[in-house]
Design the sequence.
């Protein structure tokens, strides 16, 4: 009996070789994905070292001048452009997205909610460059003629809304980004709201509360951190978005004074000048910009996923 | 105590709405209207983008656009170089990304311990969040700079890097749905693990895996930023030479949208129409199917 078992063990052991190879191979590939991420970060850090040591981290980040002729490079205008355009996008997109998510999760009949969710997710599938094309030829003339002209005329005395309305500029970039991050915020907040336990709502309804009261006092507070996570996830997407923004922001290297000024984001600066840059300090400075962008987006992504998974469990954070 | 003779139940005095009640109802109705309005606002840009791309695109669509390369100077010609380039580079990117994404997802779901599974999944999620232009810089450093030559191979690798985490995550999610009893049945028959995984687990999950691959293909086809420093774009038709620059539809759109010639802008709309139809068709087909499965 024992010998029989041993013999079978032996037979198994020989046939286990392909298993070991298969398992080991797939493990290698899986960890290679992790290594890829590490490699991207390391490579950006290594290539930007020249710029950071030459100017110093603080001086580079706060530098206002980008002058290839005199080899002086500062990141501030692009950091400001990135943050400003994303901020405009958040201000526009957040209320719309959260109300839509509430509608999809709480109010809409199923038959309507499903196709609506589907259509909103479809926005995320449109290539960035196509949205940019639409932005250049349709959206910016429209904004220039309507919202911007009106805002400059009525609110122009506030420095933030100073004219002239050009169409192309920070505001247009913000609107484009708002459109692009809507699906992210809507779908993630919807998942979070759906995962709020039914008992929360039932308790409110039992007290005679209306839908509005139920949503604002029981559902949203419960889902708050998840919704914040959804918004941050949207922000992360807005910061890194390149093509559509490059096409409508005007690509001016000056610090913007008003939301209608032309400006430039980190990614649009890289997109427009990387190929023309002479290898050396200028390329290194561009990659340093990229490293700043990477750090910002990674931090936001990690924070957002933690917040979302706290409410909805790890699945919805995907 | 008054009782209505018809039912025998005590009569309920008619409810009177207090002012507070009415205000609550009003606020509630206003809130519902606001939610509906917000949802409509969400759909408007989608409708507007698709409408304008279709209208302008169809106007720009002609045989030249599909069959002629761009003229070297001035206007005229078509988008043949871009169409062929996108097809080739996306195909190679898929060849690179599918095995890697597939095996990585496989490992995470079938073999990995909980902690390493979490770490790898996390890395993939973060990789999805890395701005695509940075992937362009990354590939530029390794595959363009050493050769002093922009090349289509680098472009394909950049697109592949973007596709890997997408394929990996969908593969992993689909494999999770394969019932454990199938694996157990195969193992009980004495089938080695690797055979079980390949001919039982993966075979069961193939439709789902294909879904993920198709979505990744759609994403890669529309990416511009990672190609700018790798494949660069070209006005020549490049069939099969991956060591040289290659055009792609997104680059073609980007370049032509910036030209001062209305004829070239027209071509950008035509190319945008082709690209959008390709991407939306894949998305609608794939998602409609999964939607149907979820409902069924």
Sequence:
């Amino acid at each position: 009996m024992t010998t029989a078992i041993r013999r079978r063990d032996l037979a198994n052991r020989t046939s286990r070789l392909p298993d070991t190879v298969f398992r080991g191979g797939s493990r290698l590939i899986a960890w290679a994905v992790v290594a890829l991420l590490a490699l991207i970060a390391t490579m950006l850090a290594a290539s930007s070292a020249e710029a950071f040591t030459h100017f110093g981290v603080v001086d580079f980040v706060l530098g206002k001048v980008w002058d290839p002729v005199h080899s002086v490079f500062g990141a501030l205008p692009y950091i400001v452009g990135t943050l400003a355009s994303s901020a405009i996008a958040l201000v526009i997109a957040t209320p719309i997205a959260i109300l839509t998510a509430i509608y999809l999760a709480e109010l809409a009949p199923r038959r309507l909610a499903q196709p609506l969710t589907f259509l909103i997710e479809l926005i995320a599938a449109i290539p960035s460059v196509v949205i940019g094309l639409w932005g250049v030829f349709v959206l910016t003339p429209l904004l220039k003629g309507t919202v911007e002209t009106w805002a400059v005329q009525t609110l122009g005395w506030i420095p933030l809304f100073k004219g002239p309305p050009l169409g192309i500029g920070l505001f247009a970039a913000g609107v484009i980004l708002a459109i692009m991050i809507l699906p992210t915020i809507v779908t993630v907040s919807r998942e979070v709201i759906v995962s709020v336990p039914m008992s929360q709502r039932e308790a409110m309804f039992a007290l005679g509360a209306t839908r509005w009261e139920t949503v604002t006092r029981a559902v949203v507070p419960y889902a708050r951190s998840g919704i914040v996570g959804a918004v941050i996830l949207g922000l992360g997407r807005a910061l890194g978005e390149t093509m559509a923004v490059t096409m409508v922001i005007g690509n001016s290297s000056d610090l913007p004074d008003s939301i209608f000024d032309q400006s430039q984001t980190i990614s649009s600066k890289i997109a427009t000048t990387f190929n023309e840059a002479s290898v050396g300090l200028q390329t290194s400075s561009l990659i340093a910009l990229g490293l700043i962008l990477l750090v910002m987006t990674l931090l936001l992504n990690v924070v957002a996923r933690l917040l979302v998974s706290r409410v909805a469990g790890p699945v919805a954070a995907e | 105590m008054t009782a209505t003779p018809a039912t025998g139940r005590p009569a309920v005095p008619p409810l009177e709405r207090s002012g507070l009640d009415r205000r609550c109802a009003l606020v509630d109705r206003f809130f519902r209207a606001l939610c509906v309005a917000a949802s409509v606002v969400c759909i408007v840009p989608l409708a507007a983008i698709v409408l304008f791309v279709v209208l302008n695109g169809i106007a720009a669509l002609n045989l030249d656009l599909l069959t002629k390369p761009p003229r070297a100077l001035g206007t005229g010609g078509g988008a043949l170089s871009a169409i062929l380039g996108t097809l080739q580079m996306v195909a190679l990117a898929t060849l690179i990304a599918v095995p890697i994404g597939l095996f990585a997802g496989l490992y995470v779901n079938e073999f990995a311990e909980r902690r390493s599974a979490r770490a790898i999944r996390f890395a993939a999620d973060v990789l999805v969040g890395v701005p695509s232009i940075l992937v362009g810089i990354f590939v530029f450093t390794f595959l363009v700079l050493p050769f002093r030559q922009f090349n289509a191979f680098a472009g394909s690798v950049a697109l592949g890097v973007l596709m890997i985490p997408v394929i990996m995550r969908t593969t992993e999610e689909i494999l999770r749905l394969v019932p454990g009893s199938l694996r157990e049945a195969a193992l009980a028959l004495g089938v080695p693990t690797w055979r079980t995984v390949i001919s039982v687990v993966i075979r069961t999950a193939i439709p789902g895996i294909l879904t993920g691959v198709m979505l990744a293909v759609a994403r890669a086809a529309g990416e511009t930023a990672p190609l700018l420093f790798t494949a660069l774009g070209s006005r020549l038709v490049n069939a099969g030479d991956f060591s040289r620059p290659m055009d792609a539809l997104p680059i073609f759109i980007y370049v032509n949208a910036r030209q001062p010639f209305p004829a070239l802008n027209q071509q950008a709309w035509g190319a945008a129409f082709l690209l959008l139809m390709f991407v939306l068709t894949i998305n609608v087909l794939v998602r409609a199917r999964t939607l149907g499965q979820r409902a069924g």
